[in-house]
UniProtKB/TrEMBL annotation:
Signal peptide: none annotated. It comes from the Eukaryota. InterPro entries: Methyltransf_16, SAM-dependent_MTases_sf. SUPFAM superfamilies: S-adenosyl-L-methionine-dependent methyltransferases. Keywords: Methyltransferase, S-adenosyl-L-methionine, Transferase. This is Methyltransferase like 21C. Residues 1-41 are annotated as: Disordered. It holds the Pfam family Methyltransf_16.
Amino acid sequence: METERRPGLHVQKKGIIKQPDPVKPSPNNTDEEDLDGEDMQKEVLSRRNSWEPSVFYSLGSETFFFTGQEISIRESLDTFGAVVCPGAVALCRYLEKNWEQIDLLDKAVLELGAGTGLVSIVASLLGAWVTATDLPDVLSNLNFNLSRNTRGRCRYTPQVAALVWGQDVKRDFPSSVYNYDYVLCADVVYHHNFLEDLLMTMQYFCKPGTTLLWANKVRFQSDLHFIENFKNVFDITLLEETPQEEVRIYQATARKSGQQHDV
């Protein structure tokens, strides 16, 4: 989840965070290199016991169990992007449960507003090549969580990049270079002033051939207004709704040229 402050891409300007690689690398060597990618994905998922709880809490961190792996997330209370939100947990559960329908193996995946990195970590464990993005101030903790939970475990090493929603996306991520099979978003819609920029960014990355998955906990009237605008610019399917948590998971694809409405 992105924060309300928009300091710009000063982290990249200082050279601390470079632009992400647009070209998927060769898969990493793993301890299970005798298995091909699909067999390894099945083997990892088979380790998860159906009775195993998904979340444990402790002060300053949360422990999750997805794809047969323990995932430890370091949190903070200083920014919105430093805590795990309900939509992120719901999307991870959905990806794990529906891994055959939502096949992330060897896919290029972009996460918008990655926050603590839980969704990007699970996507990486499912075999995707992930680029996790958020505001510059969030990247240090995001990179820490991704590194310690994916090193030596994943088919591809995920990468972290600064991404500010809005017009500069076209400059920083030219469409001639950056293309993704999936765009993932979890709880990126909340009470902030950048919903138009967010929708513009979703549209920009969700090209023909790209699938966008968005999980959101409905909190404010602005959430419902955004959902209506979202429906106006994408072809969407409501994949799952959990009333007790007020979380909805949508699948969206780009409309054909001429069918898309202005927001």
